[in-house]
Amino acid sequence: MMRIIGLLSLFIPGVIGAIGIKLMRDSVFLKAQFPFRYLGDSAYVYVLQGFTGLVLAIGGIGFVAGYVFYRDRKRGKVSDRYQNPKK
After folding, report:
1. What's the pTM?
2. Where do the TM regions start and end (predicted)?
3. I want to staple 78 with a disulfide (CB 3.0 to 4.6 A). Which of 35, 52, 68, 82 is the partner?
4. CB of 83 closer than 8 Å to CB of 32
5. DSSP 29
6. How far is it, in rounded angstroms, from Cα 39 to Cα 72?
7. Would you state the pLDDT for residue 79?
């Protein structure tokens, strides 16, 4: 059961990061997606969509990267400068 919870805790932010990358890509090609489609047809819609995609991508990828870094630091698989100071 704990493995399923751990898998979901990495899967959900990964999907959020992928959605953010898709939103950024679609704003470059001037295609408004679901929540932004109804805001009109101006350049600000694509800027807002791109910025939202950037926030989602950084958040999702950052969460997964932080989780992997924390796990590796706990197991001692990072370099010495990233290790926790000994108490």
Report:
1. 0.84
2. 43-70
3. 82
4. no
5. T
6. 44
7. 87
